[in-house]
Amino acid sequence: MKNSKNYPKSFSHIGLTVPDIKKAVKFYSEVMGWYVIMEPSTVKKETETAIGQMCIDVFGNDWTEFEIAHLSTSDGIGIELFSFPNGIKEAPEFSPFNTGLFHFCVQDPNIEELIEKILAYGGKQRMPIREYYPEDKPFKMCYVEDPFGIVFEIYTHSYELTYSSGAYSK
């Protein structure tokens, strides 16, 4: 038997493109409570710095500048917000059946209150709050959207706790 040196990698951050960086920082810091670790700033296309060259490597040459901000969740996961002046200012059509990022998920034991805040800040609730084990456990979930149309999910309990209970078995 071969000795495997594989181990679970940790999640570092997710990058989200938004139409209005200031409004996005306000939403994610005030509604989600995420820490602002770098206020919105402008990155200009240039080759004199490592950041400038890296952005050209990532985005190619068809840009001149963009805005960026960095936030962090309570468990240290980074949220990198981008806003491009010439980008499409609407979220793409919701298409969970196609390959690509479908959603991200946050955890909050007070799912009802969080959904109220999301709605108050211009977001949407995509479905009713559902329970995984209505007769046995208080595990709830719901899909929502931020004010920009980015879909995400809310769990009341940890991912491990929810699925280690066998959510799909009966």
| Total beta-strand segments | 9
Shape: globular
Mean pLDDT: 93
Structural class: alpha+beta
Rounded to an integer in angstroms, the radius of gyration calculated over CA atoms is 19 Å
Low-pLDDT stretches are: none
User: What letter string, H or E per element, gives the SSE order?
Assistant: EHEHEEEHEEEEH
β-strand percent reads 25-35%
Organism: Psychroserpens luteus
Domain VOC: 10-157
Protein name: VOC family protein
Keywords: Metal-binding
Plain-language structure description:
The chain is α+β, with helices and mostly antiparallel strands. Helix content is 21%, strand content 28%. It has 4 helices and 9 strands; from the N terminus they run βαβαβββαββββα. Strands 5, 6, 7, 8 and 9 form a 5-stranded mixed beta sheet that branches. The longest helix has 10 residues, at 21-30. The mean pLDDT is 93.
Protein topology:
Elements: E1 13-17, H1 21-30, E2 35-44, H2 50-59, E3 65-72, E4 78-83, E5 104-107, H3 111-120, E6 124-125, E7 130-131, E8 140-145, E9 151-155, H4 159-164
Parallel strand pairs: 1-4, 5-9
Antiparallel strand pairs: 2-3, 3-4, 6-8, 7-8, 8-9
What tags apply to this protein structure?
alpha+beta, 5-stranded mixed beta sheet, 4 helices, 170 residues, 4-stranded mixed beta sheet
Provide a short characterization of the protein structure.
By secondary structure, the chain is of the alpha+beta class. 21% of the residues lie in helices and 28% in strands.
